[in-house]
Amino acid sequence: MNKYLSKKARSITPYTAGEQPEIKNIIKLNTNENPYPPSPEVLKSIQGEAGKLRLYPKTDGGVFRKAAAEYENVEVKNIFCANGSDELLAFAFLAFFDPDKAIKMLQVTYSFYPVWAELYNIPYALAPLNKDFSIDPASLYNSKGGVIFPNPNAPTGIAVSVSDIEDIVKNNTGYIVIVDEAYSAFGAKTAVILTEKYENLLIVKTLSKSHALAGLRCAYAVGSPDLIEGLERIKDSFNSYPLDMLAQAGAAAALTDKAYYAQTSEKIINTRENTKTALKALGFDVTDSVSNFLFITHPKIAAKILMQSLREKGIVVRHFDKPMIGNHLRVTVGTDEQMDLFLKETAAILAGR
User: Fold this and answer.
1) pLDDT of amino acid 8
2) For the chain, which domains are there?
3) What pLDDT shows up at residue 352?
4) Cα(207)–Cα(264) distance, rounded to whole angstroms?
5) How confident is the model at residue 5 (pLDDT cuts 50, 70, 90)?
6) Separation of CA 177 from chain center
7) What are residue 177's DSSP bridge partners?
8) How far is CA 51 from the centre of its chain?
9) How many CA atoms lie within 13 A of 189 on its CB side?
10) Which of the four pLDDT bands, split at 50, 70 and 90, describes residue 9?
11) φ and ψ at 49, to 5 degrees?
């Protein structure tokens, strides 16, 4: 152990990001990246800003913030921009959760949430899921310090309705409810409309998946002006310029090109549903995912063995060695060609057992 680490640094277990393997001709289905390139307008916009790099960027997200407000049909004062949703969520933990009040999160959820809770000494309770991984909204009622959950959930891909989210918000009066909509563009209904009615609701969105900008690190939150001001207080205590000039320009252009991204999202949804049907025909149990990934398990082969076998074929998927989901794999939806090869190799592995 590094003797220079603080007690806190020694005690925490950091988040483990999806592997970025250096393998030639890989089919990378483990990090939920969009298989299609960003809009050509994004690249044009970034190139147009390159000559201004001697200047500092706008502290509030600039054109990105304005574009996000227009995209969500809210006022600019209801938008907060950040360097990726992980940074935004880390700010939210500090801004809205207290060390002496337990927050609620799901039993199976985005694995960064417990890391932030431990980093900031925030106690938390795990709300149980149903046997099929569906969410019981009532399990998130009456928190003592706040609520956070993804919708659709990660890594299961299962979503709850806007009416269920409203019930969760109404049953947590006085405490914030944070809904992480990283994957909502692929079939779930956004709850942004509820932010007009409830001042304790914060919606977090990222452009990494829906807008094919994982490498640019752009995200925003939608909420009441009081919540936005809270995020700004924390942001300005870390870094007044978290979003660079190129990212602001590229993100704004992406949000403006709605037609392009509606087309790519529809492609992903169609591929997901076709792959889901094919996997079920192979004997897999597949959750009702409305995200850009599938969550699968097979009664005749252990998930870890299937993952390793696929890797030998140059196909990388994600396995979480955790309670409840240790025999499942998360498979990102790629192009039709990529998923056809994934299905072909998966069928061959099953046939060989």
Assistant:
1) 81
2) 7-36+262-351 (3.90.1150.10), 40-258 (3.40.640.10)
3) 83
4) 13
5) confident
6) 16
7) 147, 201
8) 32
9) 10
10) confident
11) -95, -10
